[in-house]
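Intended use. Records such as the SH3b domain-containing protein entry shown here are meant for training and evaluating sequence-to-structure methods. They are not intended to support clinical decisions.
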Amino acid sequence: MIIRCFHITSVFFHGALALITGLAGFAGGAVAAAQAQGATIAGASGLPLPRFVSLKSDKVNVRVGPGRQNALVWTYQRKGLPVEITYEFDNWRKIRDSDGETGWVLASLLAGTRTAMVMTWNKDGTPSGGKKVAALEKLYKRPDETGAIVAQVESGVIGRVKTCDGQWCRLEIKGYSGWMKQQLLWGVYPEEKIK
């Protein structure tokens, strides 16, 4: 579950909440085209885009555009939440969360620490945002489904990523250490290797 506080800048239409969550056209066609093809490009920081990071504090404000002059749309209230940086402008980062929501945050509010959220996935391969929990996912002692189970973990739980081999990731989750199938995690790319 993502804890997001919405701000007064939200608008209500016929009882439904409508949010401004992005800056239309700001990222530019070249960036969007490169990302659609799975290419990695360098951002203003010189680091690759897109890439996963995590929230540095329990209070991270998200804006509709890069700059404090832009409207505040919500505040994340979950330190360690994995988010994906999709674009950089100065010291601002456009991020996307596991629900697909996008917005801009100050780079200083993001950490390079890799975390991942245990997710339930829809049939089309998109994350469900923890909305449909069919079963608990297993954290194994070693990267093997026949191995001992260390813990059973609910969708929405966040763990620190220690390593990934492209199929399995070793995580630390609330005092437990073990391996989980990489496809069950949001915060690491499919087949990504992390040392």
